[in-house]
Amino acid sequence: MFAKIAQHLQARADRLQRHPDRLARRTAQLVILGLMASGLTDGGRPVGGAHGLQPRLLSHPSFLAGVRRYLQSPGLLRPWLGSMARRLVLRESVSARRRQLAQSDRLSFVWHVDGRIDQQTLRNLLIWQNHVLESSSASNDSDTVDIMLKLSASANDEPRLFELISAALMLERIRNLAIFWGDEGLEAAAPVYMSNVELACWFETRAADDLRQMPRPVTERVERSGTRGGVRLLPDGRKRVQDFFKAAMPGQVIVAVGLREGPDGAVDPDELGRWLSLLDAAAARHRRVSFVVLNRVAPSQWRAWPAHLRFARHQGLSMQDALCLAQIADGYAGVLDIFGLTANAAARPGVYVPLTDGDGLFPPRDGSAQTSGAVQIMLSTRDPAHIEAALERVVSALPRATIGSLGG
């Protein structure tokens, strides 16, 4: 009975908030404050088969402004009323969030990184979205999800962490990414990110997979057949990349290059030396082709580079810009890291080499109809002879066109 009376008073007071008379508006505001203080709403949970009071106070900016002006004016009891009103607003905000989570069908996933954030971690994030999340029984293709990522002390590498956040925000199905160090922060924030069902399940199992580890059958399938979609092409990033092409390599056919990285996040020196010889040989045979390396290079490896070679990250482009470059370049050559998977999903013709060593050669896989005459060669070996032959085939098939022609 009291709940029904409170609901009736709430409805009447809500209508009176828009009344032209100042006394009527003030009375309505005080009634709402009194109902909030009484606790009759029971945190917004259903009472007698119906939902409790909604936080009308929070949905009316004019009400908040009016109460604020009243409480800030001089008066004997107004400082005390102001403190009480702030506590009530905070409590109602928390109650509204709990109601939202209780009725939400959003999905949240908990990951942890047991070690340093590396090249494989970034790649696994895209593989998980495209090949693991879509097969989840709780997920639909159109769902967006929240990620809660727990890092160890050794993962506190600011450049790598920034790259992880930048890459996650470009993935199509990731809505939010929350970073935590240790279990305490994760447990404190879990009620804000998870629905009640997910929260109960997580507190019971504490299930959190390591993002550095991905099931080998999944990665083998990706290395053999590639992936599809999953990364947004940002308009601003595309414009910066096109401007970079015009300024650095005008009139050239651009091939993006992705190389294996070392523990510090820079290109492995031995890897760089092997690929430089391949790229120099290809550029000598095809004067119209230039190469852009997407990875960072350590300062100790820096030197004067030939005109057909540029390093995007050292020319002012960010991680997100580099992902956009992989999508709109005329071709790609290199490993299947997050750059390689992004280029592959965008149907860029190229030579795709796995991050891990292997042997043999998979049959060539033709690109989509949108890249007529192009080819995507998925290698299962890191042998330079196989890479050189595949690179020559791809570069020879690229059209004699200007910057970003296939991606444009």
Describe the structure.
- The protein is an alpha/beta fold.
- The protein has 3 domains: 2-102; 107-214; 231-397, Rossmann fold.
- Helix content is 46%, strand content 13%.
- The protein contains 14 helices and 11 strands.
- The protein has helices spanning 2-16, 22-38, 61-72, 78-102, 119-132, 158-168, 183-193, 196-205, 216-225, 235-248, 269-285, 319-328, 338-345, 384-397; strands at residues 107-113, 145-151, 174-181, 209-210, 253-258, 289-293, 309-311, 331-335, 350-353, 365-366, 375-378.
- The strands form 2 sheets. A 7-stranded mixed beta sheet has the order 7-6-5-8-9-11-10, sandwiched between helices. Strands 3-2-1-4 form a 4-stranded parallel beta sheet, with helices on one face.
- The chain is elongated and about 85 Å long.
- Mean pLDDT is 77; it is low at 41-62, 359-373 and 401-408.
Whole-number mean pLDDT:
77
The number of strands is: 11
CATH architecture of the largest domain: 3-Layer(aba) Sandwich
- Order of SSEs: HHHHEHEHEHHEHHEHEEHEHEEEH
**Which blocks of ≥5 consecutive residues have pLDDT under 50?**
41-62, 359-373, 401-408
CATH superfamily of the largest domain: Glycogen Phosphorylase B
Beginning-to-end CA distance, first to last residue: 67 Å
Q: How many helices does DSSP assign?
A: 14
Beta-sheet strand percentage?
A: 5-15%
